[in-house]
Amino acid sequence: MKKIKINEKCNQCGVCIVKCPAYFTEDSAGNVKVVSSSVNETAELLSAVRSCPEKAIELGAEVNVKTTIQEYISKLESLKSGITVTRNDIAFNEAYTRNVYVPSAGVSGYSYRSSSQAERAGYDAFVSRCYSQVDNLILERITDYRVTEIKPYYTTDSTSVYSKNNQKIADVLKAVSVLVSSGKLSSDFCSFDIYPDTNDIVWKMLNRGEIIGDNFIGIVKREFSYSASEYKTYIDWDDMEDYRGKSIYNYNASDASRELGNDLGNALRYAKSDIEDGALSYIKGLVDSYNRNLKTCLEKKIAEIKKLV
Ligand code: SF4
User: Fold this and answer.
1) SS3 for 263?
2) To 5 degrees, how large is the angle CA 239–CA 245–CA 246?
3) Domain range spanning residue 300?
4) Residues 181 and 255 in one domain
5) Are 103 and 130 in contact (CB under 8 A)?
6) Whole-number mean pLDDT of the chain?
7) Has residue 16 been placed in a domain?
8) Confidence of residue 39 (pLDDT cuts 50, 70, 90)
9) What pTM was estimated for this model as a whole?
10) Is the pLDDT of residue 1 over 90?
11) What is the pLDDT, as a whole number, of residue 104?
């Protein structure tokens, strides 16, 4: 067995993967890599080395297989603790706390007979089109947060934190398998598909869009205590003369809707740590469940390897 590495001359052409798929593969970013740092000089490997247009594949000194496997065992032991999640990992950041866009309550045509009539109509429009939407506007931000920052913790697809960690472990298992004669390891030795308990109620509720959604509106509302009437002061009116020389009035409630958006943005900003703490309390249980399952499975894999050395 010899050490192998791909040097910086590699142009990512992928010829080596075609020639020797047992030893060459792509990482998640699409870069060519070796599956193990030690390989046998098979005919396919030598063909890949010869075919590499950049002469980027370097074969080094003979390696001690037993020692290399021990190194992989140590690496797997260090991965047994699993993954962690902190508030920083699920930050409710600027993208969610910047001022909220509130649809304008609009500007009327000149259709009111007095300034007080126009102001009342402006206030009614503000309440029905803007203020009554406060819960929906908060929910929109919380939902964006859930499907962007929290989703990797409640899915099993390739974007999940679990899949990414599983891949890291599977890469080491694959490297071990290269060092051991075929048939000595179980057929599923290289696969590592571990997830939290998907029957967990929190897992199910997050997948249904519950918990971090409606329940979190209250957290933001605690920071947003303005009544609709407090925005009356931002509703303007204007007048002009009609064709008979009589005054007619309109309203402009766009300042009121803009101010509401600013206040909602501030409320979201003030609620940031409570939102993160709430989300973390749900996710931690899932991560703990994943780590328990990971430890059990990894201990079995390590025991299987230890039998061979
Ligand atoms: S054949 Fe050579 S240049 Fe092409 S991807 Fe493989 S190592 Fe890189």
Assistant:
1) helix
2) 55
3) 82-306
4) yes
5) yes
6) 93
7) yes
8) very high
9) 0.84
10) no
11) 81
